[in-house]
Amino acid sequence: MKSKAIIWKELLDLSRDKRTLAAMILIPFIGLPAIALLASGLTYAQTTTVYIEVLDKNSTDIARFISSQLISYAKGNGLKVNVTISNTSPTNVYNILLIIPKGFYGNISNINGVGIVYLKSLVGSIQSNEIESLIESVLGQVENNIVVNRVQKLSNISGIKVNTTNFLNPINIFTGYYLPSGKPATTSQVELSFSARLLEFSLFFVANPAIVFMGDSILGEKERKTLETLISTPAPKTTIIVGKMFASIVIGLITAIADSLGVIIYLSMIAQGGLRLTAGLILVTFSVSAMLVIMTAAIITPIVLRSSSLRSAQAMSYLVMMIALAIYFSTLFVDIQRLPRFIEAILLIIPFTHAALAISNYVLGQYLYMIINFIVMIAFTLIGVYISIKAFDSERLIVSK
Length: 401
What we know:
The protein is mainly alpha-helical. Helix content is 69%, strand content 6%. It contains 15 helices and 4 strands.
């Protein structure tokens, strides 16, 4: 009964500021998709201007070909481009300037000639990067056509019949993916591996609410001058700590679910259909998120209990958040399992690492390792609860400033 009373009291305390609680739930759930809409809308709204200066009159058709292909490629990538072709220098500022100098057509028509073009991008123009890559792809297509024509000319001169495709591509490369077990990876697993990286990064937004609520649950009560009353009750310290953790976990889970949904919607929008989710992956992600909230609350509680004020607890909690952020941000670029052994061993000591590994191990079909990750997270949780009970000093909490 004492535990129920403590838990009910903590839930009421943590939910007393309904506006703040609603903001913590709704802002990420609505805000993150809104950010994605804004980013995608602004990206689509901007137009990249390209100026093709043709100084060689025989290269006009080539310039037109480059323009049409570029517009087509850009449209396929959700980009807008405006191309101007002229034989005079530009009078306005353009994002990209492509110059085809005199003698270009003559050089590429010569079997030993080399054509030169100048591709310049405006300094500080972010949208130019993708369009510049598309222009290089189109120029690569032009270059391939030139090489094919040259091979055909040599074939006609020598009288030897040549298969142009085989001549230019003497090696065929068949690509594929495989799992750590050595078995071939399915298309679904390949697609899910990309989604897993994004979901691993999103775990940071799950850990954060538990840190905030746990600090307020204990030290917030101290600042409200109600801690003495709570400690003076006959409830044992174990009941008080577990009750506060349980209440913080409940509120943290609600917030974490909203955060997770907001992040998933956000990632789905910015990935432009590249984010693939299955029922199994969603279930594992939410299970990991729930365990992460519980573990984070257990880890942060000893820090809060040993802090003299809410500000000092927030300062130490900030360090914990930075460690979590470092781990989850790194998963976007690094395979933790492929790192050198000593680095991997250091990362495995950090409890947040196992939350990310649980998701990736599920996608890779390494279910035993995934279970081990969950067991390790449970172990860190129990250790955190044990240290919290030992660290609970009612007198120190009351008199510390």
